[in-house]
Amino acid sequence: MSTGRDTTAPPSARSTEPQPLSEDVPPRGEERTDPTMSDPAKSPERTLLPTASGAETLAAVRGMLRGHRLLAFGAVGVLVAGTGIGLLTAPLLGHIVDLVVEDRGTGSLHLPMVLLVVVALVRGGATALGSSLVARLGETVLAALRERFIERALRLPLERVEEAGSGDLVSRVTGDVSTIAKSVRQALPEFARSTLTILLTLVGLAVLDWRFLLAALLAMPVQWLSVRWYLRRAAPVYAAHRVATGALQHQLLDSMGGVRTVRAFRLNEAHTELVARRSQSAVDLAVRGTRVVTGFFSRLNLAEFIGLSAVLVTGFWLVDRETVSIGTATAAALYFHSLFNPINAALFLIDDAQSAGASLARLVGVSSLAGESGPEDAPRPVDGTVEVSGLGYSYVSGHPVLEGVDLKVAGGERIALVGASGAGKTTLAKLIAGVHQPSAGTIRLGGTGTGELGPAGIRQAVTLISQEVHVFAGPLAEDLRLARPGATEEELRAALTTVDALDWVSALPEGLDTVVGEGGHRLTVTQAQHLALARLVLADPPIAILDEATADAGSAGARVLEAAALRALEGRTGLLVAHRLPQAATADRVVVLDRGRVVETGTHEQLVAAGGRYAALWAAWSDSRKGGEGSGVVPEQAGASEPGVAKSASGSATSTPGTAKSGSESVASEPSAAKSAAKSVASEPGAAKSGEERTDSVLEAAKSATRSAASEPEAAKSPSASAPSDPGAAEREPVAAED
Questions:
Q1: pTM surpassing 0.85?
Q2: What ranges does the record list as Polar residues composition bias (predicted)?
Q3: SS3 content of the chain, % helix, strand, coil (to 5)
């Protein structure tokens, strides 16, 4: 008995993480973890975003349906009418059989034949209309769910998004939404139609003779057991497959996003193996799902055989006893046979329902998360002062990244943060910007504590510009208006003039109306940073943080951007995570961090005269400018074109492959809001080595150069040993190795 179903199709993008399958797959509702570091031996567990329970998912769907009751009742009513009319087909055919058996003549067949045509036309029209209404209802609910998901995802604390990793969020907003959309457009109308057909057909069997209904129900136990067998095995597989797909997407983002670093450190084979391993996990789960589906439908075929045999035997017995006519028995057999397609379709759609259910639970899980909390009417900071007191922070418990940091910044003052990789520069910047919440200590902006300001108040007070700037697709003017929605064209031009970007904007094909971003005019790295600085001018916050904002530009581009940044910072407090010493030298004050503590602070001239770490760094950089790479001292490392690496004063090269690459290799930089966790230290095993920040590499070389002075015992290590010299330094910043 062929039912026309496809039992070979694997579960379509069901669920994710490569874990042991079957009973040890975490139940829905638990947060899963995912290793995402490039070195599997050192992979920490990544806490994924939560998944809603079945009850929570149903409650969310009911809530979204409340506003569309009329549409829902209309769709069900039309489908019931169409299905009920279609049930007249079997009795009409049975009547024709009786007419033939009784030899009534061909004239008696005209009316039943006309009625069959009318029934077919009415049923077809009602079914089409009902299916259209169901699809409209599904699309409306899906749109509401998608909007709710996006709205809540954009309000999630950035720290929570970084913990989960970009792959998890991306897989939900792409794969999960696509799976649900496919089910809504294809599976939902078919499932509704099939369910109504089954129920009304069973009623029709009872109307013919209640014993036909009992015979048909003999197939129910086998079908019920088959469904239970399937659900027990399919749900964990589909849930795990969705997680595995997310892990695969995260690894692909990691490997492709850091492709230059992967090549520089010759990690091609390692990353290929990681992608292959995650891909194989997803494939294994898909194959396992296919086996479950195949076993499910073989059991359904057995149920069909049992039910049809029972109906035929019952019909023979009733006809033999002259309880029913041959036509009635024929109608009963046709009724049961007509159940094959709707029953199989409904049960087959359980496969899609399982996949859609797993995806829906993942979307509802994010939609149910609490957004950033804070006072609704937060006070606006009165000025741009920043006061940090006793600040501490840990990414991993027991491994503090910042300890006892005290810092006061006057309004309008420009501060440069300098330090080795892992010193805590970017973490400090993130804490001030409100990306993370401090583990200890307090932060006051404009005299008001960040707890009183709340996330919205902090965003009004602080604007963070990172190394990676996202250019939104659309007209360039609209991209600029993100910072000030009501800005006039004159205000946009004034902001561009401030950052010296008006000339190249005017040279674009359509000026401010030029479409940029995905599918439009591609901006260079320098132009994208100009755009970010112009947004800063338009937003006009009292405090601005530039986290290696010029790192991706070449030497010339970096100098242009530094000049533009100085103009953008006029009249506001500025904190610069510096990667070029000339940039730090122009600041009003330089703050040197080491191992999460402030070790030096003062003007450039004061620190150079003090003869400490900053002085050694400046001396090494100055010597490199005089002697060049061959002199055995540190080259400038101003941009991607610089081929050199830091060398020690003794002339022994301590080069690390790829350290001469531009700051675009640095997974360290603060991601933009739309790409908050796309690159973590987890993806770059060499992130703790020199070369991630130009200043960091130079500083470590300067420490080596001052070894004979012995004034800094901690600095008397080669650059290659600088990262491991702090036990746990690489491990304690799993999200922000950029420090």
A1: no
A2: 1-19
A3: 60, 10, 30
